[in-house]
Design brief:
mainly alpha
Length: 235
């Protein structure tokens, strides 16, 4: 049974809008608890393991993994770029990143992660992103030639997620912590509240950026499904 690709294209904005609504609601509830009640509601802890925010973010990454895997199957018989391995390799990596977000493997989980801690994972993920961009340069260029709008949307999402995931952490250790120690050394509640606001900003930007990236990839997959649908109809 063939699914009308037009229905898929119309459904995508609603799905993305629903994800963004959930992200805004989670950030609001989290900050509400911090600023009004001076506590983090455990199910909405944006920096915890297996909480509602981390499950949502992991689900977005897992959706990306599945869409990349779908693109691999849709492009297996095609000789054009992006090549099938472009989608397959990134699908496997996205599966790991989803598990990492869910279980915080990069921060250590028992003895699972031999290299743990912020200073390690920022460097590892940064090198990985740059390496993928260089290795898949011709595949990315093919996507650029196909639709600059989708590539710009996807890169914008990646930049937002990077600012949230990397920039906010670097800002914490280089700028925020020294300032708080200097000006508010005895105000533990205030410094705690400021840190929670930073966490909310960090995690929200990560989720929003990943959602924007998912939007671009879903639209690209919809184009591919439409092409296959038209080929099937013409036979």
């Amino acid at each position: 049974m063939n699914i009308n690709p037009q229905l898929i294209k119309r459904a995508i904005p609603y799905w993305i809008g629903g994800l963004i609504f959930c992200e805004v609601a989670i950030a609001t509830i989290y900050l509400g608890g911090v600023l009004l009640n001076r506590e983090v509601y455990a199910p909405f802890d944006m920096d915890g393991r297996l909480t509602i925010p981390t499950i949502l973010q992991a689900s977005i990454l897992f959706q990306l993994c599945l869409v990349y895997l779908l693109m691999f199957f849709l492009s297996r018989k095609s000789s054009a770029r992006p090549k099938p391995y472009f989608w397959l390799i990134q699908s496997v990596l996205l599966l790991y990143v989803a598990l990492d977000e869910l279980l915080k493997l990069h921060l250590g989980f028992g003895q699972i992660a031999p290299i743990a801690g912020t200073k390690y994972w920022i460097g590892i993920y940064s090198c990985l992103i740059v390496s993928l961009a260089l290795f898949f340069f011709r595949d990315i260029k093919a996507l650029w030639d196909f639709s600059r709008k989708l590539v710009i949307m996807g890169v914008s999402g990646l930049v937002l997620a990077t600012i949230g995931g990397f920039g906010a952490e670097i800002f914490k250790y280089i700028v925020l912590n020294p300032l708080l120690a200097k000006f508010f050394p005895e105000r533990e509640v205030l410094t705690w509240a400021i840190e929670q606001v930073r966490v909310a900003f960090e995690e929200f930007l990560e989720m929003l950026g990943e959602t924007l990236f998912l939007y671009a990839v879903l639209l690209l997959a919809a184009h591919k499904i439409a092409d296959n649908f038209n080929l099937t109809k013409d036979k």
